[in-house]
Amino acid sequence: MKALLVTIGSLGDLHPFIAIGLALQAQGHDVLLAVPADHVDKVHGTGLAAEAILPGFATICARLGIDAAEAAHRVLTQRSFMIESVILPALADSTIALDALAGDADVIVGSMYALAAGIVAEKRGLPLVALNLQPMAMLSGCDPPVAPESAMMAHAPAGPIGRRWNAGLLTMLRLAVRARYGGAVARVRTAHGLRPHRATPMFDPLPAQVATLCCYSPLLATVQPDAPPGTEAIGFPLFDSEHGFSAPLDPALTAFLDRGPPPIVFTLGSFVVHAPGDFYDEAIAATRKLGRRAVLLTGESGLRDDAGDVMRMGYVPHSRLFGRAAAVVHHGGIGTIGQAMRAQACRSWSSPSSAISSTMVRELPGWGLGPRSVRQRFAKRRRKRPSHRW
Q1: Cα(356)–Cα(372) distance, rounded to whole angstroms?
Q2: What is the Cα–Cα distance from 91 to 188, expressed in whole angstroms?
Q3: Distance between CA atoms of 13 and 110, rounded to whole angstroms?
Q4: How far apart, in whole angstroms, are the C-alpha atoms of residue 368 and residue 365?
Q5: Do 246 and 319 form a contact (C-beta atoms < 8 A)?
Q6: Is 148 exposed, middle or buried (0-12, 13-18, 19+ CB in 10 A)?
Q7: What is the rounded radius of gyration, in angstroms, for the C-alpha atoms of the chain?
Q8: pLDDT (tens digit, 9 = 90+) per residue, 203-241?
């Protein structure tokens, strides 16, 4: 069998696909990853095959005339920015590129944002397996996301009235998204000989879709009754190598860890880190006020700065570091949560930018992964958030 794995986005979107690709390859299957241009080398470093189907992050920023910090800020604060400025402008070209790779594929596996995957799978009569990387993306009326946009929803509805209310609100959301973006997707479908489809982009199951795999622990969020047929929570497909191959901890970091008590680790993942605000300054101040040590993962390539009680690193595989930490303060990314659970130690969770499900709000503290920090207390001088348009 040849599996064509398709994803776009940050390392948080790429790493689960690498983990799944490596598992498939170990079972004797052929695997090809279709990814942004800036992820190809990393995939090659794992021994998997990869081809670029759309530009990398730096190229997208250059096209938009903004830097990485501004791009991250817009993604985090303007819910329409990702689809309007990144996904849809690249859809036609990425679909052509993906179609050229799919000639000998037996199955296509795609993320919710990889709209080309559904189009090419339907065109070629291939089964599509959709990967959902975070509970909130399921848009369940039974377990709705906790976010400013969902303030009107009944969280953790106990009866049919709350679930029906949520379902009605989600229907209106789907109609609005379909009216706004359905035409752009339909034009690409037509160019590939497909009829328009009433599925809402990114939200509804697609004609070729045979299964939905939720890539997180069912301990955090179970499959809800309103999930698409064939949905299963499979656990975290974990991978976090910096360059794609296994490497030991940096000797300087190892020395820092060895010479004192376990530090508090502060991280904003691979994308939020582009727009950190005062997160790291506040982290240092809080750590020193507590009389503790800290490791800051700042995303700066090649950074290695040991200030005695604070160690700054650009990137460290979470799987190698979290087990030696006293606590981890982070952005609430699902991959980071998975690594924190895997480390099996007490964790603290900061979520200045993420939106999660109601079930996760209830369950995370019980797993030593909470409580959730208050945004205004942790980053007092973050830029004012513009109103959302959805």
Answers
A1: 11
A2: 7
A3: 11
A4: 5
A5: no
A6: exposed
A7: 21
A8: 889 999 999 999 998 888 889 999 999 999 999 999 988
